[in-house]
Write a sequence for this structure.
């Protein structure tokens, strides 16, 4: 039953912390008790997942984050090599199409926080060579590039931040504004370097958390040709944290002419899921709720797959 429900819908998600969970718990990417694994991803009609390398800098001794970043990259490569029958790393839209045509999950790499690269623009060439497609300028803790949504919230991009952003654009890596400070967001938007991604952020008009996007931010992402991934974290959904509240966030973005901008960004394995959800196996309920609410299949396919494909493919 569950398999059938998942088999009806395509899936392309912009953010999970599953690789860091695998690195720290020894959990297998193939099958685990967390929010997602390759076995469950394989049940969708077709699937693509952005896997973030992530570490909370406060829990690591100074000077060790780049080592941690490389370690998690090793975990990503090892897990994909061990599960080559289920998934393959993808760098382009053609890669993703080929993976899906072969019945495999398309795995895409991202990095959550410039501090994992020591805020060093020169390391961007290295991670671009790994196939990294998306980099968050910050996570929650302030770094040498910018203030964040919760620390030094009134500080925008530093000179180094601007250098980092320009180099990322040169390397073909998209900048991700989820976790960035509001001034940092607008500094980036004004630089006009191409599509802006908010891999896992909701509508601030409905849930006032600073991790969420104001309507103007969403419009700026839309106008840049980027995408915003809907986050399943209950604290960023707010309200009664129900499926109806989730639908309201997507409605809000759609009302802002977001049909080609709103996407999925579950924050899987990095959050407490809303409405008692257990993981990606519960996504058919969101699809069905949106369909019942009047979204046609083509619109849902854009939200659930095509919008990220256009931006990251
Ligand atoms: Zn995050």
């Amino acid at each position: 039953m569950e398999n059938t429900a998942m088999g009806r819908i395509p899936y392309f998600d912009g953010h999970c912390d599953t690789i860091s969970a695998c690195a720290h718990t020894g959990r297998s990417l193939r099958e685990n008790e967390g929010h997602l694994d390759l076995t469950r991803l394989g049940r969708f009609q077709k699937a693509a997942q952005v896997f973030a390398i992530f570490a909370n800098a406060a829990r690591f001794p100074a000077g060790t984050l780049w080592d941690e970043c490389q370690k998690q990259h090793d975990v990503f490569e090892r897990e994909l090599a061990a599960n080559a029958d289920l998934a393959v790393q993808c760098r382009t839209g053609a890669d993703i199409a080929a993976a899906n045509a072969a019945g495999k999950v398309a795995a895409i790499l991202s990095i959550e926080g410039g501090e994992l690269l020591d805020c060093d623009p020169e390391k961007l060439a290295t991670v671009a060579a790994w196939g990294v497609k998306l980099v968050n300028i910050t996570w929650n803790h302030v770094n040498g590039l910018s203030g964040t949504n919760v620390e030094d919230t009134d500080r925008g991009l530093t000179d180094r931040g601007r250098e980092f952003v320009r180099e990322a654009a040169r390397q073909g890596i998209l900048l991700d504004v989820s976790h960035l400070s509001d001034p940092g967001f607008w500094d980036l938007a004004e630089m006009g370097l191409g599509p802006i991604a908010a891999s896992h952020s909701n509508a601030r008009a409905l849930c006032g958390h600073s991790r969420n996007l104001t309507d103007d931010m969403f419009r700026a992402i839309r106008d840049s040709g980027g995408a915003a991934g809907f986050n399943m974290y209950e604290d960023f959904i707010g309200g009664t944290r129900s499926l109806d509240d989730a639908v309201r966030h997507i409605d809000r973005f759609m009302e802002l002419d977001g049909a080609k901008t709103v996407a999925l960004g579950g924050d899987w394995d990095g959050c407490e899921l809303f409405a008692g959800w257990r993981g990606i196996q519960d996504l058919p309920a969101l699809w069905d709720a949106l369909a019942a609410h009047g979204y046609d299949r083509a619109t849902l396919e854009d939200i659930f797959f095509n919008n990220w494909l256009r931006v990251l493919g």
User: Anything to note?
Assistant: Residues 65-82 form the longest helix (18 residues). Residues 145 and 159 are 8 Å apart (CA to CA).
